[in-house]
Amino acid sequence: MGKILDWANTEPDSNNAPLSLILCGGAFILGLSFAPSPVREAATTAFEAVANGQNPISAIANSGKLEPKWSSKKSPEFLQKVVSIANELGANPNYLMAIMQFESGLKASEVNRFSGATGLIQFMPSTARNLGTSTSALQVMGEVQQLDYVRKYLMPYKGRLNTIGDFYASVLWPAAVGKPDSYVLFRIGSIEYKQNNGFDRNKDGIITKNEMTQLVAGRL
Predict the structure, then answer these.
(1) How far apart, in whole angstroms, are the C-alpha atoms of residue 169 and residue 96?
(2) Domains of the chain with bracketed CATH
C-alpha cells in the first residue's frame, strides 16, 4: 500500500489543488497539474532522489537551497559556502544559517564574555584548540574563512544532522545528536544548566532537547 504525504504547509493555488505524493513500491504518482511552484520543486526533488536510489523525504528536507531571506544578511560568497558545507554534510543549509544567527547573530567576531566562546557557532577555547586554532585567531578571522572551521567542526556528524534539533545539538551538546526530543541535556545545579537556563521554558529544572530545539527553530 502506498503512503500518502500531504503537503499541509503549502498554500493551494486558485484551483485549490495541493499536491499529494504517493509512494507505491518505489514508484511515484505526482499530482502536479495545479500545484504551486514550491510544491512542484519539492516533488521534482523527490522524484530525482528515487531515480538515484536515495530517500525522497530526506532529499526534500535537505535540498541544498537557502531561503531568500538570508540573501539580505550575508554576502553571496558566504552563502554559497554555507550551502556547500551543508550539502557535504547532507544537511539543510537553512539549519546552519539559523544556528549561526542564534549563536552569534551571524557575527564571526562575536565573543561570549562569560565563557569566552567565539565566532559564528561560538567555538569554546578548547574546541578551537582541537581544531588547530584559537579563539583569538577566530575573532579576527574573516567570516568566509571562519566557515572552514565550522565545516571542520561539523564533519564528524556528516549524515546525522537531519533535523534542526540534531544539527543544533552537534553545536551545543553533541551527546544529544540522534536522541529523542525528551532527552535531558542539563539539570539544575550543573554549570551547563546555569549557562543555558534560558532554554528551560517551563522552569522545571531540566532542559530537554525539545526545549533547546524550539528556540533555535524560531530563527528559521
Answers:
(1) 12
(2) 3-61 (no CATH), 68-217 (1.10.530)
